[in-house]
Structure formats: C-alpha cells, structure tokens
Amino acid sequence: MIAIVGGSIAAYTAYKTIKAQDKSVDAKIFSKESTEPYGKMLLPYMLTSNVKSNMFYEVPEDDLILNTEITKIDKNSNTIIDNKRNNYTYDRLIIATGADASRETFEGNANDRVFTVRYLKDIEKIRESIKKANLRHVLIYGGGLVSLEMANAISMAGFKITIVISSNRILSQILNKKASELFEKYLSDDFKLEIIKGEKISSIEKKENDIVVKLSSGKSVECDFVIVGKGVKPNIDFAKDVLNIKNGIVVNGKLEVAGGIYAIGDVAEVDDIVLNEKFLHAIWPCAVEQAQIAAKNALGMDIKVKPEFTRNVLPVFGMNIFTGGVSKFDEYETIIENYADGYTKIMIKDGYLDGFVFFGTVKNYGAYTFIARNRIKVKGAEKRLLHGWIDPRRLI
Ligand SMILES: Cc1cc2nc3c(=O)[nH]c(=O)nc-3n(C[C@H](O)[C@H](O)[C@H](O)COP(=O)(O)OP(=O)(O)OC[C@H]3O[C@@H](n4cnc5c(N)ncnc54)[C@H](O)[C@@H]3O)c2cc1C
C-alpha cells in the first residue's frame, strides 16, 4: 500500500497521479480532517461567496481514512500509527501534512475571539462571528498574504478593518520597501484601512459584546474579533524523531527523505535555485508539482524535481502584485521602472534573473518564473524584462 498522509492539494494530487499511472495500485489517504481533501486557497473567498460546493476533491470512500491523525512513524517496520493507536503497514509513504497557522495565546479573557485561517472550521467560526458582530470592526494581526486576503474578504462584507503589524511595513516577507509603501498608501486612501505599524498585541479583554485589544504602546482598539496571520509552521511533530528535520522535512532531489518515504508540499524543504539552499516553498504550484513527482517515484520511477523558485501572485483590493525570488531585498543589483500607479523591479545577479516585483501591472508572469527557474541568461534583455516583452525561447 502507498500511504499518503495529508488532506489537501498535495495529498490529493499524489493520489490522483498514482491512480492515473496504474488504477490497480493500492493507495490510501489518511487525513486528520473530517471532510474530503479541499483547497486552502479558496478559504477567504468562502466568507463572501458560496464556493464550498466545488472546493472538495473526490476520493473513493475506501481510499480515504478520515478523522485519523498520524502520530508516529516506525521506519523499521514500515508502519504508521494513528491517534487511536491503529497501525497501518505501508510499502511507500508520502507525507503531505502541510503547515498550520502560527498561533499564540494572548493575555486577557478573549482568546475565543481570536482566529487563524487554515481549515474549513476556521472559516465557519469567522462566519458565525461576522453574524454576531456589533461594531462591525475587525482587527487583523499580521501583514502577510493571508492577512490581506482576509482583510479584503471581510471589508467586502462592509466591515471596518484595522491591520496591526509588528514590522515597519506591510507584506514585508515578499515586497521591498518601496512596494510596501505604495501598497499601504493605496489601502488607506482607497479602502480606508487603518494600518498600525511597529506594534504588538499585549492583551485582549471582553467588554460587553465587544473586545478591547491593547497594543504594546498602550493604544487600544475596540472591535468584534481578531484574525491572526503571522506565518505558518510545518506539521512535523509526528516525524521529528525519525526523519531529517530542519524547519520542515528535508528531502533530496527525488523528494525522498528516507528509503521509500517522501515529503511534499508545505511540509517539505526543497532546494531553492536562487538561495542555493533548502527552503520551505509554501505555495500551491510547488505542492502540485512535487506531489506528481513523488507519486511517480513511489511507483518506482526515477524523477528529479528541479530546484524551486519561490513566487507569489496576489490579487487583493483590486491590485495585482507579482513577486518572485529575492523580491523582498532592497540591496540587490536592480533595474526599476516607475509608473503613475505602480512600478516594476527586476533583480539580476551574474546575468541571471534572481527576483522581481511587479506592482500594479502584471504581464506574462509564467515567463519570469520560467526564466528564473531555468537559469536562462538575461544579459541584454533587461529592458524587455521590465516591460513584459519577453519570450524565454529567444533567450536560450
Ligand atoms: C487562506 C490561504 C490562502 C492561500 N493563498 C495562496 C495563494 O494565493 N497562492 C499560493 O500559491 N498559495 C496560497 N496558499 C498556500 C497553499 O494553500 C498551500 O501552499 C497548499 O495548501 C499546500 O498544500 P499541502 O497539501 O502541502 O498542505 P496543507 O494545505 O497545509 O494540507 C495539509 C493537510 O494535512 C492534514 N494533516 C496534517 N497533519 C496530519 C497528520 N499528522 N495526520 C493526518 N493528516 C494531517 C491537515 O489536516 C491538512 O488538511 C494559501 C493558503 C491559505 C491557508
């Protein structure tokens, strides 16, 4: 049996790939959740539209073991053990346990009004809180991708949004300083978002139907509830004692971590082509590609994953932001083009495209990822790269 542990896009893609290669192979998904696998990217959109019906991936009942959290691996006996102490013997094991939202417990009596966004049940709780809201004001703690998607979704429901960030700029993990500043101005001018920077939450207390969030400076914000979006942490605890763990599960070029055991998606640390080291590429396209390769390798093929290139496309508040590689760094060899309502920045090192920021106008984005990931020299094509007039085949 090929055991796949997980309940989302990586687990489902691995299962589907195995069955597409050979229907007769015994493959099973073990998920700690109670539903069929589903796509996490759609969660913010569930607040304002009914996408629930098409967000699940169909897996035959016999191949889907739900409500089953794998808590241990015994490499010697090729066995995984679940939270009810059931043992399952595998021939191959694919770990696709992804990541969880980083959580913290705050001082005060209102931690039940604090939510993160990673599971369907999180969205159901937020939806209930929206129904009960009195002030129609939500505080979002963290200025990353998921925070902004949630801010966008909740503001569409007519809520006031205050974003509190501990760093000095929004999207600090993917944007450089200039793009952060432009985006902050756009959010406050056009969408009336309040952005409070350089602050942490020190306590959250209930006050009648509302809550009072105290910040480190002593300032306080009264609102209905808080959403925390402060990054993710890979689900690795069950594998800690037996597998090679750094930040996630470290895999080789074939996505193997030990004989016959593979790790894929948000839980896997894979080579990065620009950083030249193992890195967690917690994005959807990487999870899909890795799942396809690991599934084929588990069937006996011998396929290597190309080192990854991290990238993000963020369509929020009517703005498109596309970043890749070393996009958050300011200290790089760069070429910049400014427009009235945005800008493009290309980062080049030794003739290779190592990063980019497209803020406002996003063109031809598959080409940039392709050029960077395949280490195609861009010497002499810098100007064309800035404007999206680029055909990778002509550079090779
Ligand atoms: C709100 C949101 C918005 C996003 N937006 C984007 C975007 O715009 N673009 C993009 O590229 N990416 C986006 N992402 C990231 C993307 O969704 C992830 O990269 C992708 O879901 C990774 O898939 P995965 O299967 O590796 O892990 P996950 O989606 O984290 O799924 C892992 C699954 O494993 C199960 N599991 C965990 N531990 C165990 C265990 N011990 N036993 C059994 N089951 C277990 C969990 O229940 C979970 O369902 C977003 C993520 C979120 C949450």
Write the layout of secondary structure elements.
Blueprint: E1 2-5, H1 9-21, E2 27-30, E3 64-65, E4 70-74, E5 79-82, E6 87-89, E7 92-95, E8 99-101, E9 114-115, H2 120-132, E10 137-141, H3 145-156, E11 160-165, H4 177-191, E12 194-197, E13 201-207, E14 210-215, E15 220-223, E16 225-228, E17 232-234, E18 249-250, E19 256-258, E20 261-263, E21 268-271, E22 278-280, H5 284-298, E23 311-316, E24 319-325, E25 334-339, E26 342-349, E27 352-359, H6 365-373, H7 382-387, H8 392-395
Parallel strand pairs: 1-2, 1-7, 2-3, 7-20, 9-16, 10-11, 10-16, 11-12, 18-21
Antiparallel strand pairs: 4-5, 5-6, 8-17, 13-14, 14-15, 19-20, 21-22, 23-24, 24-27, 25-26, 26-27
Flavin-adenine dinucleotide is lined by residues 5-11, 30-33, 40-41, 43-44, 69-70, 96-99, 117-118, 146, 149, 235, 238, 265-266, 282-285, 287.
